[in-house]
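Record type: ASSEMBLY
Status: queued
Input:
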Amino acid sequence: MIISSTDACESNGLAVSSPSQGEPILDVRDLSVRLGSVRAVTNVSFRVSRGEFFGIVGESGSGKSITARSIIKLLPPSARVEGRITFEGTDILSASPDELRQLRGSGIGFVFQDAVAALDPVYTIGYQLVEACRAKMPGVSASQAHSRALSLLAEVGISDPERCLASYPHQLSGGMKQRVVIAAALIADPQLIIADEPTTALDVTVQKQVLELLQKIAAARGAAVILITHDLGVVAEVCDRTAVFYAGTVVEEADTFTLFKEARHPYTVALIESLPVLGVRKAFKAIPGSPPKVVEQLEQCPFAPRCDRALPECGARLPPETVSPDHRYRCINPYT
Amino acid sequence: MMSSPDIITLNNVRRTFRSGHTFSWRPRIVKAVDGISFSVRRGETFGIVGESGSGKSTTARMICGLERFDSGSIIVDGIDVGRLRRGDRLKFRKILQLVFQDPYAALNPHWKVGDLIAEGMRVHGIGDRRERRKRVLALLDQCGLPSDAANRYPFEFSGGQRQRICIARALAVEPRILVLDEPVSALDVSIQAQILILLQTLQRELGLTYVFISHNLAVVEQLCDRLIVMKSGRIVETGPTEEVIHYPSHEYTRTLVEATPIPEPSRRRRPAHV
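Status: finished
Output:
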């Protein structure tokens, strides 16, 4: 069945096409974030083009969520941030609170990981969507906001929007709540949607629907999406380009097809090999050791202690980035 | 595939829960498990697959004697789980042990790892202090943990190591069956394979029977000999793993297989952009 290649969509040429050459909507340059003595993010750079589906994949503690939150400057007050984040010409890190308020929601929509925590349990869905709508679009009347909320719920595939508006969060299923949270992120027509592990808490069948919904929305609105996940399977299914995070830094970034076919960094290769693939029975292949919990300094390759290709030099300094068109990685002894 | 006799047999087991308001006149009855029958063979890995609300965890808990059932029977290694008395329960625990999903919640943070692992042996009166100590060290080694782990506390360990501690603890009383309730789904991706390999090795060495509960079909496929697929309290499909996954006969199984992400973009089932 789906496991045979005949059923697989022949989309090889499709996804690789234009996005990387497209005009960047978001440009992150040398972003570093310190939380106290911890280096949460170190020298992270990437660009997201208009209409692109960009994946950020990493394990817990790899800095992917902190990176995402930096983009809307939603970090704890103790965070020390360096680098540059430019969204449609606006320098986010030096933006005023007013500019930021404009940006959040209107320019960039954020879908949080935990849909349960993102919705207030004591207000109806309608109240929360209408409130968000009127906050983002001054001058909109209550009834206009109401109909906007209705059309958004319809857009995210809720079959009975009226009833959903009158419901409290606890009356909805996990998938419905996630759809509502996505609808809320769409209120002010953002050009960039950041979805932080939007499907982690969901069943696979619901996950599939939510991912398809995000693809549909991105395509219909021409918006870019940054999808943050720990699941390489999810990345493989939907992302045009993918950055692999490890210990707070990007170890490899490439077009998704290239990444899976010609991964260079040993971590990426090991991660792909460690995943069980449905329909292919093979022995499990593990990565020894565990990812660093806390990074205080990044003066060597963070993966070196677990790497079977490590050279003595790997412990001496953080490998520089090797950049080729559409592919870059931080490794001095990469797979070729 | 083995042909040894069945070690676990469920016959038409039902479990309902009352839902809705505590004092309502007409409580809604939820059929969590709605008349299921299956048997697990000695030495095999048996998968129970389903999404949230399918009844897979209730089924697992009933097999372990942690959950009553309304009707039907569950026989585990000759013991009628429905008629367990207080004294029998202890005996039953020597046959069947559990490993839970969240290794962060499953270990008492105030206890040293050595005491956590030895607790079962102490309760069952296995060996004296010194012998238990020796066995703890052997178990740590068997589960890939450093021997100094015995004198440390759970917080000093990563998620994967904690799951190893949970497995060592379960094995301490030398059970024949391990019920594994989503044992890797709370772990980092790069750690999951380590734990699954450990489980496979232990099974080979100790001849254990596994009941493996999971929502991840890809993991189940690699690990399980046979499986059942559950939906809304019923078994919708059962059979050898390969057969069920490659030639699913039930619509729901097909949906599950199709929804499982495949980490190979070349096998993408739809274009990235419309």
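Annotation: The first strand of chain B starts at residue 6 and ends at 19.
Annotation: Residues 95 and 207 of chain B are 13 Å apart (CA to CA).
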